[in-house]
Design brief:
Strand content: 35-45%
CATH class: Mainly Beta
Shape: globular
Number of helices: 5
CATH topology: Pnp Oxidase, Chain A
CATH architecture: Roll
Number of domains: 1
Radius of gyration: 18 Å
CATH superfamily: Electron Transport, Fmn-binding Protein, Chain A
Helix content: 10-25%
Length: about 200
């Protein structure tokens, strides 16, 4: 199979990307609108960016009619958001929040997800999330195809990371296995953490 972006449709390229860039961590992003309505949605175009300053990135596309998704609009309007790690037992609830709900809908309620207050920002955390990253807006990079804005890469400055106590060992190291994070594959497929291996870096 060969996928040439010059010949294939954008959707074919997207599906090829999501099936080959695997597994991807899922940022379950909670935000708050300027009217105080909570929003919760998952994004798997998500990554750490730098340790100094401490930055993460999420890439948010548009709705089907070309408008910015609620997550992007809320972050741009308020400057705050929370990234919640998705444990495998919350997979169905996470997928439920991926629907394109109207802005007036609180996805926490729609998916039966418990919200708990954050410490440094106004948007709530997901109750039961094994780790959360509270962020403020650092920058927004508009991704364009020609003159059309198709995505917005949002850089968030980490204000606080909170990890469940039982996922941290006596040395203060985080055990990813205890987080039980869900990974994103292509289509409707997801993955668990799987086999754990230790491979030391070479000393040169």
């Amino acid at each position: 199979m060969r996928i040439d972006p010059r010949e294939a449709s954008p959707s074919d390229v997207y599906f090829a990307m999501t099936a080959t860039i695997v597994p991807r961590p899922i940022a379950w992003v909670s935000t708050l609108s300027v009217h105080g309505i909570p929003n919760l949605a998952p994004f798997s175009f998500f990554s750490g960016v730098s340790g100094r300053p401490p930055l993460v990135s999420i890439c948010v596309g548009n709705t089907r009619d070309g408008r910015p998704k609620d997550t992007a609009r809320n972050i741009i309007d308020t400057g705050e958001f929370v990234i919640n790690v998705v444990p495998s037992h919350m997979a169905e609830a996470m997928v439920q929040t991926s629907g394109e709900y109207p802005p007036v809908v609180n996805e926490f309620g729609a998916a039966g997800v418990r919200s708990v207050p954050a410490e440094r920002v106004k948007p709530s955390r997901v109750g039961g999330a094994p780790a959360v990253i509270e962020c403020t807006l650092h920058d927004v990079i508009e991704i364009k195809d020609g003159d059309e804005i198709t995505n917005r890469m949002i850089l968030g400055r980490i204000e606080l990371i909170v990890v469940r106590d039982d996922a941290v060992d006596a040395r203060g190291h985080i055990d990813a296995r205890m987080l039980d994070p869900l990974g994103r594959l292509g289509g409707s497929d997801y993955a668990l953490l799987g086999e754990h291996r230790v491979i030391r870096r070479p000393k040169v």
